[in-house]
Amino acid sequence: MRDQPWVMRTYAGHSSASESNALFRRNLAKGQTGLSVAFDLPTQTGYDPDHELARGEVGKVGVPVSHLGDVRALFDGIPMTGMNTSMTINATAMWLLALYETAALEQAGVAPDSEAATGVRAELSGTTQNDIVKEYLSRGTYAFPPAESMRLTTDLIAYTVSTIPRWNPINICSYHLQEAGATPVQEIAFAMSTAISVLDAVRDAGQVPPERFGDVVARISFFVNAGVRFVEEMCKMRALVALWDETTRDRYGVTDPKQRRLRYGVQVNSLGLTAAQPENNVARIVLEMLGVTLSRDARARAVQLPAWNEALGLPRPWDQQWSLRMQQVLAFESDLLEHEDLFAGSHVVEAKVDELCSEARAEMARIAEMGGAVAAVENGYLKGELVASHSRHRARVESGETVVVGVNRFTETERNPLTADLETVVQTVDPEVEGRAVAALQAWRASRGEAAVETSLTALRDAAKGSENLMPATLACARAGVTTGEWAQVLREVFGSYRAATGVSGAVGTAEAGPEMLAVRDLVRRTNDDLGSRLRLLVGKPGLDGHSNGAEQIAVRARDAGIEVVYQGIRLTPAQIASAAVEEGVHVVGLSILSGSHRELVPEVLRLLREAGAGDLPVVVGGIIPDADARWLTEQGVAGVFTPKDYGITEIIARIVGIVRERAGLP
Q1: 252 flagged as catalytic
Q2: What is the pTM of this model?
Q3: How far apart are CA 365 and CA 350, in angstroms?
Q4: Is 545 an active-site residue?
Q5: Which of 39, 131, 353, 374 is the right S-S partner for 62, CB 3.0 to 4.6 Å?
Q6: Cα(595)–Cα(178) distance, rounded to whole angstroms?
Q7: What is the pLDDT of residues 271-292, one digit of tens each?
Q8: Catalytic residue (one of 51, 60, 176, 383)
Q9: First to last CA, the chain
């Protein structure tokens, strides 16, 4: 008997709710069987489009959702009770699910407190990612401190188990851990430790009766990354299946094997895709897909694939279609789904799985001794381990020990017809999107009833100060017309703010012995002597982009080269960066932006430096920056632009030192 294929998705959303809705409809018409919604960074971090930190970020990496009206437009014409919707949302997961439920009830034409509403809620299926722990480690879209964030997570889980029974209230997410440098063992151990912390918190909160705890376990899902080492990736998933079954049985006493079954979705490795010879990414994507589909006993429940050109910019609809077709060919043309597990009884696979399980248990025990995943976030252990692991990986790539085809080996190439016109090979977001979003937000605020808004926000504030479940108050806010930023701001006022550890200070250098590094260290020493002071580099992350892996590796390598590094982490305004550059007396500013907001934020930093009398201070920029934008930034006064094509970090450091010497008039 042929198995049913997994849910097929593409991760999509940009510009506005209406444009994203049109994209969703086209993708569904092409055979996509579920939706995976990408939200823009202001939505993910709890800011409205008119907030200072939202500048340049609106609609760039996903769809902006500011209020209930946006969700209505996003799912216009798409039956929400018949759709499996995954939402990549964490800090504001409760808010987005409240908007989603409210819109679904409106779409069905039923009142929230009616008997019919219970039936609508029972038909809603999908996932809120809602794993805040990994946001402190890799992706950076946290909004509140860890303990308070965990409260939001557990409240949402308790609500969905009793009210939206088919909803997955959390994706324990190891995806971004791999992108941040995690080894397979770290992926398993960190994800399992997070799951244990979440389940412990739900159990201890007392909102779910003990006899229903199996229902909680049954709705916990995972979201993983699949790299190109597809045999190892497949074994990693079999190991996670075994450990999840073991943990839920032994630690939580869940006796039903169906409730203990590992349920996971996957996005294959996006940051492993290359800008050099990007056509090679197609082979990488296929191999990564095989790692989570070949093994029937550890097969993904849902798969979404990146596009071949994601290292160059925002994929076009045609690029997403190509990735969807890869899934469809495997599922419907091959015979994969006609067989039992292909690896059962393989001594090679069993040995690898046993090795991964053993090492992961040891790492989980270390984390448990610290007090669990949340404590290991707060003490900086998890972040430091990831930064160090990523540093070792980068060193292997740069030395050639780890081969990346087209990047550090086999670099000779014919002219690529896919990238012949780099101006059209990716989709661009209309720069007017932000202005239209702000105008629409103002119109929404003007049209709503302010008394209802204030009443609901007061109730939310009171609930946050107490211990009651925050979902009812959040639903009331959604129905009253509260905005994303207003909901989050009330919780910021009650919960406070938080800055996660950067992991840079504890990372161990990995490039000490190489001749290239030795040459750079010598250049730094000579520059120190010529300047009469130690060379200082400010690494800045302006805006809401929380993907800090590149910035962290630059900071670690620069420090290894003998440069004094000033790095304050993510989510800084241009004014904060310019002020720090002047106050710290740095010799060069390095800005890291992967969200596409470089055209708005970089010129602002340059302007503020000029106003502060530091206009001669060289500024370099790194990120996913199209060639045309790189030329434009240079025209604006940027001294150097680095993109994914510049994979040699030691070489980048050497070039930055050269820029400082040139700007200082040194030979």
Answers
A1: no
A2: 0.90
A3: 22
A4: yes
A5: 39
A6: 19
A7: 789 989 999 999 999 999 999 9
A8: 176
A9: 74
